[in-house]
Amino acid sequence: MSQFDYDLFVIGAGSGGVRASRIAASHGARVAVAEEYRVGGTCVIRGCVPKKLLVYGAHFAEDIHDARKFGWDVPECRFNWDVLRDNVLAEVDRLEGLYGQTLDNHNVTVFRSRATVVGAQKVRLADGTEFAVERILIATGGWPHVPEFPGSEHAITSNEVFHLETLPKRVVIAGGGYIANEFAGIFNEFGSKVTIVNRGDAILRGYDEQIRDRLLQISMTKGIDFKFNAPFKSIEKGEDGSLIVHLENSDPIEADAVLVATGRTPNSKGLGLEEVGVALDEQGAIKVDETNQSSVPSIYAVGDVTNRIQLTPVAIREGQAFADSVFGGKPTTVDYQNVPSAVFSHPPIGAVGMTEAQARNKLGSVRIYTSDFRAMKNVLAGRNERALYKMVVNAATDQVVGLHMIGPDAPEILQAAAIAVKAGLTKADFDATVALHPSMAEELVLMK
Length: 448
Ligand code: NDP
Hints:
Layout: E1 6-11, H1 15-26, E2 31-34, H2 41-46, H3 48-67, H4 81-105, E3 109-111, E4 115-119, E5 122-125, E6 130-138, E7 142-144, E8 170-174, H5 178-189, E9 193-197, H6 209-222, E10 225-227, E11 232-237, E12 243-247, E13 250-255, E14 257-260, E15 264-266, E16 299-301, H7 312-327, E17 341-343, E18 349-353, H8 356-363, E19 366-374, H9 376-381, E20 386-394, E21 400-406, H10 410-422, H11 427-432
Parallel strand pairs: 1-2, 1-6, 2-3, 6-16, 8-9, 8-14, 9-10
Antiparallel strand pairs: 4-5, 5-6, 7-15, 11-12, 12-13, 17-18, 18-21, 19-20, 20-21
Helix pairs in contact: 1-7, 3-4, 3-5
Bound molecules: NADPH dihydro-nicotinamide-adenine-dinucleotide phosphate.
C-alpha cells in the first residue's frame, strides 16, 4: 500500500492541468485534480474559445455588407447580442462537460473545490479534507491584472466581458495588447464606438513593427479611436450609469463599458506556496526548471502560473512533457523556439520567429521580403484593406527566421507556414514550391 492518497495532485483544471492529469493517469498514476471554478480553465471558459466565437460573430458584419457586391440581395440586418452571447455560453457549457468527461474516462478524481498546499506533499481542500500526495502540480493559470486607480471597480476584465447584459454603445479599452485589439475589433464590428487607451505609444509590443502599424492603420480606418501615452487617472460613474474615464494627457471619454486589458498575472496567491518554500519571481510566477520542477522537488508547475509563454498550446505541451517525464519514463522538455502566435483582430495577425528588429540585432545581416496586397475578395467588395506578409531571412544561410502576416485568415495560413520555419527551411525552399493559385497564401512562395 502506498503511503500516499494520490501519486499526483493537480491544482487547476485548465489546459495545462487537464492535459497533465489525463496523461499521468494514462501512464498508470493515481491522479486527482482540484478546480475551484469550472473545468476547462481560461481558454475554454473565458478566453480563446468564446473569444474566437465572438470574432466569427463579429466578422459577419463585414461579410453581410460585402455580400451585396457579390450579388446577394441582403435585407437590412440587425445584430442581437443576447443571441450570440447565449449561444457562445452554451457552447462553453458543452465543452466544459467534455473536459469533465475526459477526466472521468481517464479515472482522474475531480474535486470541485479550491485546494491549497499545506506541505511539500500535502494538500487541503476548502472543506478541510487533507490528502498526502507524492507530487503536486500547480496549474492555476493567470488572472487579469487591473492597475490601481480610483473607480477601477467600475471596469470589467476579460472575465466579465462574455457575460455583458447588453451591448455597450461606447466602449473604452485600457491596454494595447492581445485582448485590447481583439475586443476592439469585436465591439467595433457590432457597432459600438471603441476607443483604445494605451499607457505607451505602441500596440502589440513584441510583434513586427510594420505589421503593428498596418493593424493600427486599418483599425483607425474602420473607426476605432486610439489614445496613446494616456494612462488612466480614474473612472467616475455618472447619475445615468454612464462612465467617465479620466486620463493623463487627454480629455475625458464617456463610455457605457470600460474593459481593462493590461496583461495577466500568475495566479499563485493564497495557495500556500511560499509557506512551503516554493520560490516565486517578482511577478509572482512560480520559478521552475526545464523539467517544470519548482524549488521544492515534489512540486511542479506548468502554464501561465509560470509566466513563460502565456499561450494555451504551450501550457498543454508543458503538461504533456511533465506527465511523460515524471510518470511515463519518457523525459521530455518543451522547445520554446519558433512558437507561432496570432492576434484575432480585424483583420487577424499571425507570426512565427524573429521580427525584423530582433533578427537585425541577433544576426546582423538579414534580407527582408514583403508582399503588400489587397485580397481578391476585398477588391471586388470595394474594401480598401491591404494585407501585408513579411519574411525575415538570415542573409548568411538563406534560412527563413521569421514570418509575419496580417490579412484575412492570416493565422490559418501561418500555422502551416510555421512548420517550414520550424524545420529551418530556406527562402530557396519556399521559392521552389509552386504557388497555389488563386490564394492569399501563394504570396509566401512568390516574394521577390
Ligand atoms: P498583453 O500583455 O498582450 O498587453 C498588455 C497591455 O497593457 C500592453 O499594451 C501594456 O502596455 C499595457 N499595460 C501593462 N501594464 C499596464 C499598466 N499597469 N497600466 C496600463 N497599461 C498597462 O496583455 P492582455 O491583457 O491583452 O492579454 C494577456 C495575455 O493573454 C497575453 O499576453 C497573451 O499571452 C494572452 N492572450 C493571448 C491571445 C492570443 O493568443 N490570441 C488572446 C488574448 C490573450 P506596454 O506595451 O506599455 O507594456
